[in-house]
């Protein structure tokens, strides 16, 4: 899954899904593999007005092969009704290091806190229940280039699954690494039915 807005006006045939890579400026590692994208399906209700339903499904030409360096992230079925307010999530990505700055060549991460919908609406009046906000005082959030995937998603670590992570959000808009501004993300648990319906034959963890 990715953010729908990442591919607006783009031809998915010009892109590949790359797995097993940490630094995009160095030679590919032995674990790196590229997969051709053969279809792109945005949510039919996605709107650029407020980025509601900002999610899409990419299908690759081959099944992605897992190894000790490449593995899946779980869909958040067990968190379908979770509120997440107060939870700490991890954002991963290769976005810019600061607004207008250079893109990070190496994968980076930052831990952020989920704030309540009511708190977020004081800044983002168009917020819907299919979105989740993150903000940590004194810290930056996601930045330009961090939207969608293989750019970051919001992960919740789950000790019951031996450290495996659940993708509870997809970076959508806001923040831009600016302190004092919340980041707005697509709330994946709210769209699980659509993901499953549009992923025939997929194996979910």
> Per DSSP, what share of the residues sits in E-state strands of 2 or more residues?
25-35%
Helix content: under 10%
Give the rounded overall mean pLDDT: 83
If you consult CATH, what is the topology of the largest domain?
Answer: Thrombin, subunit H
In the CATH hierarchy, what is the architecture of the largest domain at level 2?
Beta Barrel
CATH homologous superfamily label of the largest domain: Trypsin-like serine proteases
**Spatial arrangement of strands, main beta sheet:** 4-5-6-9-8-7
Briefly note the structural class of the backbone: mainly beta
How many strands, which pairing sense, and closed or not: the largest β-sheet? 6 strands, antiparallel, barrel
Task: Name the features.
Thrombin, subunit H, 205 residues, mainly beta, 3-stranded antiparallel β-sheet
Summarize the structure.
The protein has 205 residues and is mainly beta. It has helices at residues 117-121, 192-197; strands spanning 16-19, 33-42, 56-60, 88-93, 108-115, 131-134, 153-157, 165-174, 183-187. The protein folds into 2 domains: 12-71 and 193-198, Trypsin-like serine proteases (Thrombin, subunit H, Beta Barrel), CATH 2.40.10; 77-190, Beta Barrel (Thrombin, subunit H).
């Amino acid at each position: 899954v990715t953010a729908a807005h990442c591919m607006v006006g783009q031809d998915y045939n010009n892109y590949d899904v790359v797995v097993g890579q940490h630094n995009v400026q160095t030679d590919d590692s032995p674990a790196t593999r590229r997969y051709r994208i053969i279809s792109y399906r945005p949510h039919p209700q996605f709107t650029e007005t407020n980025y509601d339903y900002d999610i899409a499904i990419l299908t690759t030409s081959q099944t992605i092969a897992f190894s000790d360096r490449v593995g899946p992230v779980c869909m958040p079925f067990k968190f379908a009704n979770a509120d997440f307010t107060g939870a700490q999530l991890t954002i991963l990505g290769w976005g810019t290091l600061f607004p207008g700055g250079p893109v990070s060549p190496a994968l980076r991460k930052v831990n952020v806190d989920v704030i309540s919908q009511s708190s977020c609406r004081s800044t983002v009046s168009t917020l819907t229940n299919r979105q989740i906000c993150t903000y940590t005082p004194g810290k930056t959030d996601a930045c330009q280039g961090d939207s969608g995937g293989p750019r970051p998603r919001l992960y919740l670590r789950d000790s019951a699954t031996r450290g495996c992570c659940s993708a509870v959000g997809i970076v959508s808009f806001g923040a831009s690494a600016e302190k004092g501004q919340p980041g707005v993300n697509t709330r994946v648990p709210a769209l699980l039915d659509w993901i499953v319906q549009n992923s025939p034959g997929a194996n979910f963890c």
